[in-house]
Structure formats: structure tokens, C-alpha cells
Amino acid sequence: MIYDLRTVAHVYSGRAGAVRALEDVTLRVSRGERVALLGPSGAGKSTLLRLLNATLRPARGALFFEGRDLSALGPGELRAVRRRIGTIFQHPSLVPSLTAQQNALCGRLGSWNLLRSLRALVVPGSEDVRAGLAALETVGLSGKAAARADELSGGQQQRVAIARVLVQDPEVVLADEPFASLDPGLTAQLADLLFEVTQRRTLVAAMHDVDLALQRFQRIVGVRAGRVVFDVPAAEVSPELLQQLYAREARRAG
Amino acid sequence: MKRAAVAGAVCAALALCIAGAGVHPAFDARALGAFVRGVFPPDLSPPFLRVVGLAIARTLGIAVAGTALSVLGGLPLGILATPSLFRRGPLLAGERPGLLTALVALASLAARALLRFLRAVPDLVWALLFVVGFGLGPLPGALALGVSAAGILGRVYADLFEGVPPGPVVALHAGGASRMQVFAAAIWPQAAPAVAAYTLYSFECCVRAAAVLGFVGAGGIGGEINLSMRLFEYGQVLTLLLAFVALVLLTDAVSRRLRGRFQRNAVHGSGLLRGPVEGRVARRAPALLWIALAALAFQQAGFLGIAAPGLLGHFGRFARQLFPPDLSAGFLASLLEPLWQTVSISVVGTAIGIALGGALALPATATLLLDRRDAPGVLGRAARLLAYSGSRLLLAMLRSIPELVWVLLCILAVGLGPFAGALALGLHTAGVLGKLYAETLEEVPDGPVEELRAAGATLPQRLLWAMWPQAREMLLGYTLLRWETNLRVSTVVGMVGGGGLGLALYNNVQLGFYPRAATLVLLIYLLVSVTDWLSDRLRKPVTSAEAPPASAMELISAASGSPAAP
Q1: What is the pLDDT of residue B312?
Q2: What residues of B are in contact with residue A98 (Cβ under 8 Å)?
Q3: Percent of chain B surpassing pLDDT 90
């Protein structure tokens, strides 16, 4: 058991008052599972992923990672947990003025001490250079290692983000609509890449492309208005279920 | 390889400058201790408070009169220096080339060159010259401010006139309007709100500047600080400094509010004359009151004395004695050492500012210290809040005390000479750069920082790998801009004992060697011009697409040595 969420809730308090993002979410994920989160935008998928990668504390309920309650961990222990979870965002926020290789190496920060990370920024060690280059080669970007991140196209930036996760070598990979801002041709390519590099890892991804999710994932979790509305094997997802899940969007569109 | 070479060259240059600035380890703790003990309690006795009040009135008078003079001088020169009116562009495309056109274009170029000269020579140098020409008192201070601020404002005005949307200009010109008609009907109304805003900003800078002109005998609060320091009346120094800081804060607040209104006007496109500000101000205060206030300012600035018999004649004789400048080889050779000292002071001062300001900027960065998600417990959070507010307060203190006052304090600690100048520059620069650094780090896009946090990066790692790479180019730009300002200041720190060209100028003026003083003024002009050009070249690739208003703000704050454009 890698994740165990028990009646987790989260509330954002903003200027316009409190917004309930997640309510009463109970979810378990086992090692090696591939879980797709589906649901209309604003349903709480991104919030759920941020809870899962330990950058957000649940307001209520408990979140266990490998049997440990995350809210009981100190900063150092939390960091150790984050190091074992890699995240790919919809719009990868690479550091624009660093090279592709340096951005890939960012995946190592979690396992470096301060001195090491300072040195690696100025003169990276040869082993680090090799690891960065190998990751970039896996994602098909070895020719762009020395290019600044802001000189890369959107698809190339997403590849660098995947390379960063490769360098981080985490047990769990979380992805937040990783292909939503790419054109269809690239999506297929990058999806292949993502599934290839996460073969022996746990993968939880928020997906906007329902067909892709049903094709590639074993398990589908539907999230709507902050609640889990279904949690079934991909084969059991019926058109009715999907219609209910996206119902309000359909009405708004129509 | 290349990076190592650059780093080596920078280190070597810095080492040379450290030698040039006479950095030494001797430190007079006793004199400094006496100062710190003497500062408390501040002197609040009624007779001295009267002196402070008078000095503040003088300072304000100098600033108002100086600003008025700078507008009187800067506006016509600025119009003449506007390229699109007299040199090139659609207004001139249809003119027949001839002698008159060429002469007018030449006059326009000459106006531009004159403005450059007026603003490249520091206001304190102008003040020193006017003090000799007109005698001690506030009058030379106001004149000096007027001359140097005219150089800045003239250029800013010309840029604003040049930058107005060209549509109305071309349309009126095509309809048969003369160039001056086009200016009055299409250029001025479009530029007026910005002109008013920048003039107010220039006034803020004039208040700061007016406070230090007294160091060379040009009246105001600076003269009192200088006097109290020399009399070892440190309690008075503290009172004066507090009064000065209060004056600057008050002026900034009032002026910023007014400027905000003008700029809102500029956004809405309504002209100054029909704008809501004019109406509101007019309703609150009748014109007579404004005239009376201006008259009072000129009276405080000693303008009644200008009619004294023989004063203008005296100034004329002094001005004639400046020419021709002494260009003998022997004298020029003797200037190499103070020249090198001045450059060294600016470099070492900036380096101290980078180190100290950088160290204080980290705890002063809210996004680094006050992030609730890095919750280190109640005690830890309290400690972080304390470090944050402490460093912010220290930075504010460092930058609100002018460089020249710091020179006097540093002389106590390390003795007369260039090191005191460099140290003083460094302390003030630390306050300015520290604030800019902290704000730059706070403004860095959040996305990359958050991604690294998600990957398990610690706070220092996020600083190194996400914030620093995103901020470094802006940090470099700010630092170079500050060095440019510091070079100007380093030419004058010598006037109060900080070494370099300022000391040579001061000595030669005191000894009556006016041709030599003229050479020194020219040398300072050349040095400042070369630095501006160099710093521009270095910054170009860094901050390429700058909006004109931002650069105008920079121009004012850099040339007048004010802490920072708000």
C-alpha cells in the first residue's frame, strides 16, 4: 500500500471566502498501480495531486504514505517523502535561464546537501553530467542538453520535465494533465514515453483525454465537485458513468 | 574556461581597486564608541530645535527654488533638444534643406550636449563652485540644484516629447500647423501629465540632494550636520538626522500621492490642464497661497541677496578665472592618482554594498522567510519574522542616511582618506541594493520554485536552483546601475574627507587654483560620461526592452544619487 487517504478534505481560504476543493475523499493506491483521475475542470483533481505529492496539507482527515501519517512528519522527513514522488505538471515550469541538462539535474536536489547543490550549479560532477545526459537521451533530447529552457518548444519542455523525473528516480510519479497543452500528434508520442519511463513505478495521473485514460490505465477514479464519485477498473467504465461525471459541463456547453 | 577567465579578471580588478581605495584593517573603536555613546540622548532642547526647524525650512526652500529653476532652464532646453521638433522625423521631412535648417539642428544638438554636461557634473561640484562665486549660504545650493536638475529634467522632457503618440502630431502638421503650434496643441497636452509626474519625482530627489549640499557650505540641514559633527555634538547629529529622515519620508509620501494622480491622468489620456487634479488642488488652495509659498521658498533659499551690490560682478570675475583650464602635463599627471582612487572607491563601495546588501537581502525576502508552508513551529516562525523585520529595518536605516553623512561617520572609525569614502558608499549602497535584491527575489515567477519544492528541494536549494537563475540578470542590471550612481558619488566623497577627485577639487578651490578646478570638473564630466556609456553597453543585452518611463525614472534617480526609483 503506497497511499491511504481517509476522509480527506481540503478548503482554500481566499479573499472571496472559503472554497471547498475536496470533501471526504477516501482512496487507496497500491504499489505499481496505474490510476487515472477523471473529472471536469475544477473538480479537485489538481488539489488531490498536490496532497499526494506532499506540498499541501489536508485540512481534515489523514493521508498515509507507506503507512506513515504525513501530517505528523517534520520538514526533513517531508522532504524525504517528496524526494520519492516525482511530479509532472500540465505547464512544466522549468527554470527558464538554466539549460535543459541543469533542469533535468534539478531532480537530484532532493538527495543533495546544500554544498553539493551549490557545486553542481557551477561545476556539475561527471557522474551528474552522465545522469542528466542519459535522461535527456531517453526522452529524445540529447541534442538540446546545452539549450536554455526558454529556448525550447512546449513539447520539448515537457520532455525535459519527464527527464527531470527520470533523474529523480522516484517510486511514485504524479502527472497533472501532462498532455493537455500539447497538440494531438505530440500527445501520443509523449504518452508512450511517459508509460515507458514509469513502467515499474506507481503512476497517478489527472487526465483530460478520456479515451487515452481508458486505453492506458488499469483503474479510473472519477472526481466531481471535490468528491470521488466512482473508483472502478477501466474495463467497467460505462458511458453512463462518464455522462454523470461530466454532466454539468455538457449542460453548460449545450 | 571562459567563465574562469572572467572570474579571474574580476578578482584581479577588485584586488587592484582594494589597493587603490587604501583599504586597511586599522579601526578606531574608541572614536566610534564615543560617537555611539554621544548620540544618546538626541538634543531636544528648545533653542536647538529652533535651529533644526530653521534648517529644515532652508532645505525645503532650497529644494523648491532649485526645482523651479530647473524647470525654467530644463523646459526650453528640453524642447530645443527634442529631435522630432528640430532634427529629424515627419515634421521635417517636407522642409527644404538649407543653412537655417542646419543651424537649428546644430542648436538642438548643442542643447542636448549642454544638458548632458549639466547632469554629468554632480550637484555637489556645482554647489562648491557657486559657493566660491556667491559666498556661503543657501543661494549657491539652490542654484546648484537648479543647474544639475535642469540637466536631468531637460533630457527627460525631451524624451517625453519625443515619445508622444505621433498620430495627432502628423495630422496637425499636415493641416498646416507650424512646429510650435504642433508642440502646443499635440505634443504638450499628450506629454503634460508625465511631465508633471517626473517633475514631482525630481523634486523628491532635490529634497534629498538639498540636505547634503550644506556639506560644502551651501546652507540647509547638511551644513548643520557637518557643524555638529565637527563640534563633537553627536546628540545634535542624531536630532538632525531624524529630522532629515522625517522630511524625506514626508516629501516622498506627499509627492507619491500627487504623482499617482498625474499618472492616472496620463493613463486616461486627459490633459493636465483639464484633469481632476488641477481642479481639486485649485479648490483647496487659492493661487495666491501657492505664489506666497513659492516666494517664501525663494526667500528661504537666499534669493533676496542676489541683488546685493557687486555679487553678480564677483561671480563673473570668478567664472572668468576658471578659464582656460590648466592642461599642463605635470598637473594632468598628478591627477592620475586621485582618478584611480575615485574609480577604486566606487568599485570597492559597490562591492561592499553587494556583499552586505546581498547578505541582508536574504532574510529580507518575504517569499523565503515568511512562507507558511515551511512551518517550522511557533518559535521558529517568530524567529523568522524577527529576522525579516530586523533586516528590513536595517536596510531602511542604511539607505536613508545619505552617503556623505556616512562618510563623516566612517572617518571616525577608519580615519580620513579613500577607505572612509568606500566604506560610506558601501553602507549606503547595501541599503539600496539589499532592498532591490529582496524585491527582485520576491517577484521571481513561482512555478519553477514550486516544482523543485515538489521534488524535495530544501529552501536554500530552491534559492540556488530556481530563484537565483531567474533573478540573476535583473540583479546584475540593478547592480551595474548602482555602480554608475556610485561613481558619480565617489567623485564628491572627497569633499568631506573621503579621498579621490573630490578632495583634489576641494583643495584646489580652497587654494584659489581655479584653472585647475576647471580641469578637475572636466575630468569628472569625462569620467561620468565614460562610465554611463560603459554601464549602458554592459546592461543593454540584459535589460533590452525597457519602457521609456522606467528609464526616465532611472535617469533621474541615477543622476541625482537618490536611493531608488519607487
Answers
A1: 82
A2: 465, 469
A3: 43
Query: Which CATH fold would you assign to the domain A85-169?
Result: Rossmann fold (3.40.50)
Point out the least confidently predicted range of A93-107, A184-198, B452-466, B539-553. B539-553
Q: Quick check: do B50-317 and B334-502+524-543 share a fold?
A: yes
Which fold, B334-502+524-543?
A: MetI-like fold (1.10.3720)
Residue B83 and residue B105 in contact, taking contact as beta carbons nearer than 8 Å = no
Summarize pLDDT for B517-533 with one digit per residue, the tens: 999 999 999 999 998 88
How far apart CA B343 and CA A129 sit, in angstroms, is 41
- Asked if pLDDT for residue B480 goes beyond 60, the answer is yes
Q: Is the pLDDT of residue B275 over 70?
A: no
The residue type of A150 is D
pLDDT in tens, A124-148: 888 888 999 999 998 888 899 899 9
C-alpha cell recorded at residue A17: 471566502
Chain A residues touching B473 at Cβ < 8 A? 97
Question: In whole angstroms, what is the distance from residue B472 CA to residue B469 CA?
Answer: 6
Q: Which of B444, B434, B422 is nearest to B393 (CA)?
A: B434
Taking an 8 Å cut-off on Cβ atoms, the answer to whether B473 and A106 are in contact is no
Among B24-38, B299-313, B509-523, which stretch is predicted with the lowest mean pLDDT? B299-313
A213 contact partners, CB below 8 Å, separation of at least 6: A36, A38, A205, A207, A220, A234
Whether the pLDDT of residue A250 is over 60: the answer is no
Q: How confident is the model at residue B547 (pLDDT cuts 50, 70, 90)?
A: very low
State the pTM of this model: 0.82
> Which strands form A202-206's sheet, in the order they lie side by side?
A85-88, A172-176, A202-206, A34-38, A219-224, A227-233
Q: Where are chain A's structural domains? A: 85-169
Instruction: State the nearest Cα–Cα gap between A98 and chain B, in angstroms.
Output: 7
Check: CB of residue B516 under 8 Å from CB of residue B333: no
β-strand pairing of A60-65 with A3-14: antiparallel
* Site of grid cell 587603490: B20
Alpha carbon of residue B519 to chain centroid: 24
Q: Could you say which of 1.10.357.10, 1.10.10.10, 1.10.3720.10, 3.30.70.260 is the CATH number of the domain covering B50-317?
A: 1.10.3720.10
Closest CB from B451, B465, B472 relative to A93? B451
As a whole number, mean pLDDT of residues A183-200 equals 85
Nearest to B423 by CA among B412, B409, B410, B435: B410
Q: What is the pLDDT of residue B269?
A: 42
Q: Which residues of A touch B375 (CB under 8 A)?
A: 75
Residues of A with CB under 8 A from a CB of B: 53, 55, 57, 75, 79-87, 89, 91-98, 102, 106-107, 109-112, 114, 117-118, 121, 161, 164, 168
Tell me the domain boundaries of chain B: 50-317, 334-502+524-543
Decide: residue B241, CB within 10 A, 0-12 exposed, 13-18 middle, 19+ buried.
Answer: buried
